[in-house]
Design a protein that fits this description.
Helix content is 45%, strand content 18%. With 330 residues, the chain is α+β, with helices and mostly antiparallel strands.
């Protein structure tokens, strides 16, 4: 999730702790830091490939969240009035776990079982920026500033929303996915599976990823499906053997193959060889609203390979979120 949502949830938690600290500001600072702290891995100088591999790993795991919570508790023990290290640790752990849970509900994937497993697990419930979730949290937070007598009740309501909203979205997703599968079957379309993942303006819009055998097709799907065929856009599946071979020449291809959830490719042949573009359909823009708001949107986590006429890797480049790996060789 975006940092505004994490910080809002932490400030609401701080409202519950206001009478346990000498000042409400210290309680708010504790709550805000606890809810944001797992994202500290954004500031440790990860390179593009390391970002793929290590972001949402240690700091977003059950064990890593405990380490962060312990450090937070030790730092704040002298600042708390009625809370010792143990209680501060439990509150801090609950806040870091709330962060992990909200990130787990996005399709980016979170290594919650690190270091025992590097599997990126996720629940397809939330888009990375969700105004239908964040704005109510901010509203409750603002209300708690003016209605101090009700601040604890408002804080509890906000924290309950952090759990109830993703679960409600999963219910909507299940119903929409069943309808998409029914529509495809009725149309006679050949497909192996359908996966619905969050898109901009979820739960009212979703992204459908349809496995068609040799291709993966993607479409933006409103929750209230209109009549007519789905506007599917198909891509050839990424060549696993090619990625494995390129991974022996440049490790980022191996890392990207591990990271990608719906890997597809575009292959353009020319007189100087081939240019192969690898994309993950998780990050391909499909939402009509998003395309209007961001007409120049560049798909993140895109990997390019330039192959010479003999099929060997000549150069490569990678676009992360805000980080770019320039063309080069390992």
């Amino acid at each position: 999730m975006d940092p505004v949502t994490h910080v809002a949830s932490g400030l609401l938690a701080g409202r519950l702790l206001a009478d346990r600290f000498p000042t409400a500001r210290r309680a708010a600072l504790f709550g805000m830091l606890g809810a944001w702290l797992p994202d500290v891995d954004n500031f440790v100088g990860l390179g593009p490939e390391e970002y793929l591999r290590d972001h949402r790993a240690f700091t977003h795991s059950l064990s890593g969240a405990a380490v962060l919570a312990l450090g937070l508790a030790l730092a704040f023990t002298p600042l708390a009035r009625n809370l010792g290290v143990k209680k501060l640790f439990l509150w801090g752990y609950a806040l870091t776990l709330l962060h992990v849970f909200l990130d787990l509900c996005t399709t980016y994937g979170t290594q919650v079982l690190w270091p025992f497993s590097d599997a990126r697990l996720f629940l397809p419930a939330l888009f990375i920026v969700d105004p239908f979730f964040t704005l109510p949290l901010l509203t409750l937070l603002a209300m708690s500033l003016f209605w101090k007598a009700q601040r604890r009740a408002l804080a509890v309501l906000g924290l309950a929303l952090c759990l109830a909203y993703p679960l409600a979205n999963l219910g909507v997703r299940s119903a929409v996915q069943a309808e998409v599968e029914h529509r495809l079957a009725d149309s006679g379309a050949a497909f192996q599976s359908v996966q619905l993942i969050p898109d901009m303006l979820t739960p009212f819009w979703w992204k459908a990823v349809v496995d068609q055998g040799d291709t993966l097709a993607v479409a933006s799907v409103p929750a209230l499906l209109p009549d007519g065929p789905l506007p599917l856009r198909a891509y050839p599946k990424a060549d696993g053997a090619l990625l494995a071979r390129l991974g022996r020449e440049a490790s980022i291809f191996r890392t990207w193959d591990w990271f990608a959830l719906y890997p597809v490719m575009q292959d353009i042949a020319g007189s100087s060889g081939r240019e192969v573009t690898f994309l993950d359909l998780r990050f391909v823009a499909t939402s009509p609203v998003g395309q209007r708001l961001f007409p120049g949107y560049a798909t993140p986590f895109t990997l390019w390979a330039q192959l010479d006429p003999q099929g060997r890797l000549a150069s490569y480049s990678f676009r992360g979120t805000s980080k770019v790996l320039s063309p080069g060789r390992d």
